[in-house]
Amino acid sequence: MNKQDAASSLKEGLMQADSPRARRELKTVRVMIALFCRAHHKAHGGLCPECNELFLYASERIARCPYGSDKPTCQKCPIHCYKRDRREQIREVMRFAGPRMALRHPLLTLWHLISGRRKPPERKKLGQ
Ligand SMILES: [Zn+2]
Questions:
Q1: Confidence (pTM)
Q2: From the CA of 86, how far away is ligand 1's center (Å)?
Q3: CA 53–ligand 1 middle distance (angstroms)
């Protein structure tokens, strides 16, 4: 996976996400995965294949989110649409990148915190 591929996968993901909210969520996820990848996989200027796959998976989930523009952040979402192993993976990324995000991307983090407080529009329990 080279730099170009990683960049075009981000673009692809952004094109799938059609609401501004989903787009911002996607950007946040991308930044978090990149932080994680740089620290753990020593990838330079992009994501390693593994993290790129995770990002593509996440962007697909975000794009298909039934909440659309009312989307809560995934952490607060009552629909757990991630597969089990992907959820573990993204959780690990968030745990690592969360505190670091605040330093490097204060605005994105602020947005993430604020939107995380929003209640999902409808409380549905779908298993889990
Ligand atoms: Zn990686």
A1: 0.68
A2: 14
A3: 9
